[in-house]
Request: fold
Amino acid sequence: MDIKTKVKVLLNQNLSAEELNQLKTIITRQEQVALTEAKTKDGKVLTYEGELAQGVAISLVTEAGSSPAPDGEYEMEDGTKVSVAAGVVSGIEKPEMQAPEAPMSPEMVQQMETKFSAQIKEVESAYEAKVTALNKTIAELTSDVKFTANLLQKLVETPIETIALSKQEQKKWEDMTPVERYNATHPLPDTK
Reply:
C-alpha cells in the first residue's frame, strides 16, 4: 500500500491534533527525501538516501518494486565496490586512482622532438613531390589544350572546296557506289 493510501485510511480514523501534526511531519520528510539511483556493472539499479556511505540503507529496484538490497558485494559502473549486509552499506571500496606519469627527462624530450621533426620533414617531402607531379600534369594538359585549340583554329580557317558536278554526273547519294561516295566527300586537289 502506498503512502497516500495509508494517509487516507488514517484520516478516516479519529486522530488527535498531535497525531495529525506528526503525520504531516512524516509526509513532508518523505517528500523531501531524494533517493540517489546508481547502476551496477551488471545492470542492477540500487537506490539510497543522501551520500553513499557506511550505514546507509540501500535498496534494490526491480520490476516488482524496491526492497532492501540482498547481502553481497556490488560493483558500480564507476568501479566502486559496495558491500551490503542486512540492507545496509557495510563497506565501500573506491577504485584505485592511477598515479600521474612522471615528467619526461630532457633526453626523452629531445628524442621526441627529433622524431617529430623527422616525421614533419617526411610529410613535407611527400607533399612537395605530389605538388611537383601535379604541376607537371597541369603543364602537359595546358600544352595539349593549346595544340588542340590551334588545330581547331586551322580547321575553321581552311576553306571548303566544293566541286560542281554536271547534271549528268550528279547522282543521288543512295545511287552512288562506296567509291563515288568517298570521292564526293574527299575531293582530289586540283592539279592544274
Observations:
- The longest strand covers residues 88-93.
- The radius of gyration is 48 Å.
- Strands lie at 35-39, 45-49, 58-62, 65-68, 72-75, 81-85, 88-93.
- The chain has a mean pLDDT of 81.
